Automatic annotation (TrEMBL):
<dbReference type="Pfam" id="PF03705">
    <property type="entry name" value="CheR_N"/>
</dbReference>
<keyword id="KW-0949">S-adenosyl-L-methionine</keyword>
<feature type="domain" description="CheR-type methyltransferase">
    <location>
        <begin position="1"/>
        <end position="275"/>
    </location>
</feature>
<dbReference type="InterPro" id="IPR022642">
    <property type="entry name" value="CheR_C"/>
</dbReference>
<dbReference type="InterPro" id="IPR036804">
    <property type="entry name" value="CheR_N_sf"/>
</dbReference>
<dbReference type="Pfam" id="PF01739">
    <property type="entry name" value="CheR"/>
</dbReference>
<keyword id="KW-0808">Transferase</keyword>
<dbReference type="InterPro" id="IPR029063">
    <property type="entry name" value="SAM-dependent_MTases_sf"/>
</dbReference>
<protein>
    <recommendedName>
        <fullName>Chemotaxis protein methyltransferase</fullName>
        <ecNumber>2.1.1.80</ecNumber>
    </recommendedName>
</protein>
<dbReference type="InterPro" id="IPR050903">
    <property type="entry name" value="Bact_Chemotaxis_MeTrfase"/>
</dbReference>
<dbReference type="InterPro" id="IPR000780">
    <property type="entry name" value="CheR_MeTrfase"/>
</dbReference>
<keyword id="KW-0489">Methyltransferase</keyword>
<dbReference type="InterPro" id="IPR022641">
    <property type="entry name" value="CheR_N"/>
</dbReference>
<dbReference type="InterPro" id="IPR026024">
    <property type="entry name" value="Chemotaxis_MeTrfase_CheR"/>
</dbReference>
<comment type="function">
    <text>Methylation of the membrane-bound methyl-accepting chemotaxis proteins (MCP) to form gamma-glutamyl methyl ester residues in MCP.</text>
</comment>
Amino acid sequence: MSTGNLDFEQFRVFLEKACGILLGENKQYLVSSRLNKLMEQQGIKSLSELVQRIQSQPRSGLREMVVDAMTTNETLWFRDTYPFEVLKNKVLPEQIKANPGQRLRIWSAACSSGQEPYSISMAIDEFERSNIGQLKMGAQIVATDLSGSMLANCKTGEYDSLAIARGLSPERLQRYFDPKGPGRWAVKMPIRSRVEFRSFNLLDSYAALGKFDIVFCRNVLIYFSAQVKKDILLRIHSTLKPGGYLFLGASEALNGLPDHYQMVQCSPGIIYQAK
């Protein structure tokens, strides 16, 4: 597969327009590793030919396949640990108090292979077990991702032993999963039924999502330019109820937007409260 500089530049422009992802100038190897197989199957020799084919055959489904391949990420259960502890010990009690008699709504943006929304659902179950009767109206988790194939896998709630090994304790595996044959497990229905998966591009309108008490948008903003990142953070703010919380990735910080978000130190970790 050819990834000449001009080819790569064309592809970078295409990808940013399609889904906002800004590829670094030295990311040719990433593009090669993610698209080699697809381009081979389609008999495409270069990135410029790929972009040309997408533009000339908009109904072929090639655009979706390329975005899919470039945005697919395996992730971990209970990634970084602290967000889920902060959720159970601080955020859930606060939000229940602030919204008595209402069902809590949580958005897991860019949910990838489903570990984040299912981890949130397990954390809610753990909270309910130790705070019986507090979350009277329950909670709904809306999990969104750009990748159609990822979402289809998420909905089955099935994972192999390789995925299970990434961050899941034996206790949680036993409590929240059913064995589904050799080396496969399925998330139990009470955990799955709290999560609704939807296909969604972070560059599209947020109006249909409704309002949320809590938003997890972790380890995704790193892929966007500063301007797009700021735009997404402002639009997330518009979906958050006043006093609602935003969780970012451990290495991500929210610089600016002091009129919209207030930083809250949780030791460990930082979260942001919507003003």
